[in-house]
Amino acid sequence: MKLSKQQIAYLNEKQLKSHQSRWNILKDQLEEKDVDVNGMLKQVRAFQIAIPSWALGTGGTRFGRFPAGGAPRDLEEKMYDIGLLHALNRSSGAISLHIPWDIPENAGHIKTLAKELGLRFDAVNSNTFQDQPDQKYSYRYGSLCHTNKAVRDQAIAHNLAVVKYGVELGTNVLSVWLSDGAIFPGQHNIRKALQRTMDSLQEIYKGMPDNFEMLVEYKPFEPAFYATVIPDWGTSFLLVNKLGERAKTLVDLGHHLPNTNIEQIVSTLLAERKLGGFHFNDSKYADDDLTTGSIKPYQLFLIFHELVEGLKSQNHPMQYLSWMIDASHNIKDPLEDLLQSVEAIKLAFAQALLVDENKLMESQEQNDPVSAQEILQDAFRTDLRPLIAEARLQEGGALDPIGVYRTLNVRKELIRQRGDKTVATGL
Ligand code: PSV
Ligand code: MN
User: Is there a contact between 345 and 323 (Cβ–Cβ < 8 Å)?
Assistant: First the structure.
């Protein structure tokens, strides 16, 4: 299913007047504060967040699944779904593939479709956390950390095969997340498991083309409950530092223990030129994979504040990093959930752009935490939704993406086309 610009423009018409009045009020308010409104609009318009190919169907927990129907049955249908999102919000113009959940069998055809839908390929993700039917050795006791060299070699070869798909699709980022670890104390030698992981990653790094980056993701627990081999940013940082310049850390917001100061991690990694990318989601307890911004929007804003300030200090554009969503949609329509996530991310980004950095620096120099808080919260509490809508409008997207999605009965149409019992590969 595809949405045309005309369909969207027609539905925008009805909301144009009320949008204009809200936007004019905000614009005046921002201009009064000497905010570079056009500069902000330009940045928000350009910002793109990759959609993971593994999160377009209804997810579930180990207790059950409640699919909503109309889930994409193959990579092409997944791309059409991302095309729908991008047509609505103009900010989902990239797709991140998880291999072997989504193997681009015919790269030429897939690239043509991507072009037609206005999409590009973001990081390719390897998967050595599950066994595949045709695989020789099992990953039951780990992959890159395994005691048996043959298993490690198989996992290394898989990662290099993923890189090859990436090359064919025109991306240059490999993202690695390992579930390797011990579920019970004593199960493995912690020091040796880390060393073997390091050696295996080195093999992969050496095998990548010179322009390829490797992102190493960390996660404190699950499925390895006792000692995950790469449990935290410190371990990832240690590994990527040893690997080389093109290896960096990937921060998944859900991969922290409660109350971890993620913005501080982001700032430190960025300062060391070792922050490579993001997996956005939100959580209350651990890796809940909830809609971004649904639980802790202030934290998201504080993270973006560090990103905006840090990248600016290094003269890097926002697209210097890989931005991706990594979520599971248990009870919401996955496409609506993704629209909400992208909106929350753009809002946090725009709020961060609004922070008066010079004034904040003055407060910091004068050791004035009261005024620092006022400055940050003034930006956070400014309702920038009309600016995000205006940016979308200028890009040819929908003023109200979820409204248009519902008015056009997109889910109903997808169910009609694909059936109500379809299952998508992925989470
Ligand atoms: C693991 O929890 C993770 O965050 C990794 O990024 C995986 O690639 C993804 O979720 C899908 O399982
Ligand atoms: Mn992730």
Answer: yes
Reference 100, options 133, 67, 141, 71; nearest CA is: 133
Residue with CA at minimum distance from ligand 1 atom 9: 326
The response to whether residue 236 sits with its C-beta less than 6 Å from ligand 1 reads no
376 vs 361: CA distance, rounded Å: 11
Ligand 2 centroid–CA 326 distance in Å is 5
Tell me how far the alpha carbon of residue 402 lies from the centroid of ligand 2, in angstroms: 25
**What's the token pair of residue 349?**
């980004």
Pick out the chain residues at pLDDT < 50.
Answer: none
Per-residue pLDDT, 60? 87
**Residue 112: CB atoms within 10 Å:** 11
Report whether residue 252 contacts ligand 1, using a CB cutoff of 6 Å: yes
Whole-number Cα distances in Å, 384 to 132, 297, 415: 46, 14, 35
Report whether residue 165 contacts ligand 1, using a CB cutoff of 6 Å: no
Distance between CA 223 and CA 131 in Å, rounded? 14
What is the predicted pLDDT for the residue at 425? Answer: 80
In this prediction the pTM is 0.97
Ligand 1, atom 10, lies closest to the CA of 326
